[in-house]
Specification:
Layout (H helix, E strand, L loop, with lengths): L10 E10 L2 E11 L4 E5 L6 H9 L6 E6 L2 E2 L10 E5 L10 H11 L4 H14 L15 H13 L5 E5 L7 H18 L2 E6 L2 H7 L2 E6 L2 E6 L1 H6 L4 H6 L4 E10 L3 E6 L2 E6 L9 E6 L5 E4 L8 E11 L3 E7 L5 E7 L10 E5 L6 E4 L3 H15 L1
């Protein structure tokens, strides 16, 4: 297995709808996943990400729409005939079987000969670093080791598509990071098309070729991690994918390349090709890491505004400032620990880059509050 790549399949989702009684879980979803791609379905609880994964895997039959693998329709095809491997959060290992037997199970169900089973199991266990634990039982393994067994079992029959439903959710943070990178390594080595469900934005950024952000049964945006972070489709995506300072205001001026918004008691410029008339409600988004906090008169950038430091948190290699603007709106800045920590209560210049400043027209604080509520729900 480790000597040759699997031919990953292309998966296409067209106008897929699904209802659970009166709950509309998927609303006309379209998604194209390329061969060997690592696609993450990212969203909070109730967004439809797990329902979409289950529809692709055949665990549920969607109410309408079509799902194809390399152009072949899957409707009516049971999970065991879809050539897909599954990894779940609860591992789903057989407690009475050894690691070796657990990994061999899908091969034995396919009635493969003993030599092939032995070779495939050995290759899969070596790939996930468990070849020396082949004769142990699940109860003798740590949570991370059990999840590696589940991964080995999912890939041992060389499926063309691998489906993972929050596989790291039961592990501690350090182990999640470590095992997440191992999953990505295995995926790249095998070339298997992978669809990964999570509510964890950091996981999505680190692992994915592309991310599909979901909310209330819809896909809001599909793009690479960097592009989706730098150019979010709307305020929800921008806020859901990382810390964002949100300032509400209105348009002062606009041309074909930029817009100036009066927000926070100051004028903030953002690059955009959208022309907006004067007075249009607008929301400015500033990432904390894009802001530089300096003593008054110490900002090198032309784009800056004044604020007062309300509080500071020193983290060794970084400093987090809580700032108050002239109109009382608040924002946070994360600055390098290379500079001296500025005292609380002092007035400062806050510089930013207009090309990295986000602007959304018509968005309001109610939308921001809604996003924060969904984020809090996702981590509960």
């Amino acid at each position: 297995m480790s000597e040759s790549k699997i031919s990953g399949a292309a998966v296409h989702v067209r106008n897929v709808d699904h209802h659970y009684g009166g709950f509309h879980a998927l609303k006309g979803v379209d998604l194209d996943i390329q061969p060997a791609e690592f696609m993450t379905l990212l969203g909070s609880s109730g967004s439809g990400k797990t329902t979409l994964l289950q529809a692709i895997g055949g665990l549920i039959e969607p109410s309408q729409g079509e799902i194809t693998v390399d152009g072949n329709p899957l409707r009516g095809l049971p999970p065991e005939r879809r050539d897909m491997g599954f990894v779940f959060q609860n591992y789903a290992l057989f407690p009475h079987m050894t690691v070796q037997r657990n990994v061999a199970f899908p091969l034995e169900m396919r009635r493969m000969d003993r030599r092939t089973v032995r070779e495939r199991v050995g290759q899969a266990l070596e790939l996930v670093g468990l070849d020396e634990l082949a004769h142990r039982h699940p109860a003798e393994l740590s949570g991370g080791q059990q999840q590696r067994v589940a991964l080995a079992r999912a890939i041992t029959f060389q499926p063309r598509v691998l489906l993972l439903d929050e596989p790291l959710g039961a592990l501690d943070r350090q182990l999640r990071q470590q095992l997440g990178l191992e999953i990505r390594r295995v995926q790249r080595e095998l070339g298997i098309t992978t669809i990964y469900v999570t509510h964890d934005q950091e996981e999505a950024f680190v692992l994915s070729s592309r991310i599909a952000v979901m909310r209330e049964g819809n896909i809001l945006q599909v793009d690479t991690p960097e592009r989706i972070y730098r150019n979010p489709a709307d305020l929800f995506v921008a806020t859901f994918l990382g810390d964002l300072n949100v300032l509400t205001g209105s348009v002062v001026s606009s041309d074909n390349e930029s817009v100036t918004v009066s927000a926070g008691g100051t004028d903030v410029e953002a690059s955009t090709d959208v022309h907006a008339s004067r007075g249009t409600p607008a929301t400015i988004g500033l990432r904390p890491e894009e802001l530089q906090v300096r003593p008054l008169g110490g900002a090198a950038a032309a784009a800056c505004f004044r604020a007062r430091i309300d509080s500071t948190i020193f983290g060794g290699g970084w400093v987090r400032y809580s700032l108050v603007l002239a109109d009382g709106q608040r924002l946070h800045a994360v600055d390098s620990g290379a500079h001296d920590v500025l005292p609380e209560g002092s007035d400062v210049d806050v510089s930013y880059t207009s090309a990295r400043t986000l602007v959304f027209f018509g968005a309001n604080q109610d939308q921001v509050n809604s996003v924060k509520e969904l984020e809090a729900e996702a981590v509960r």
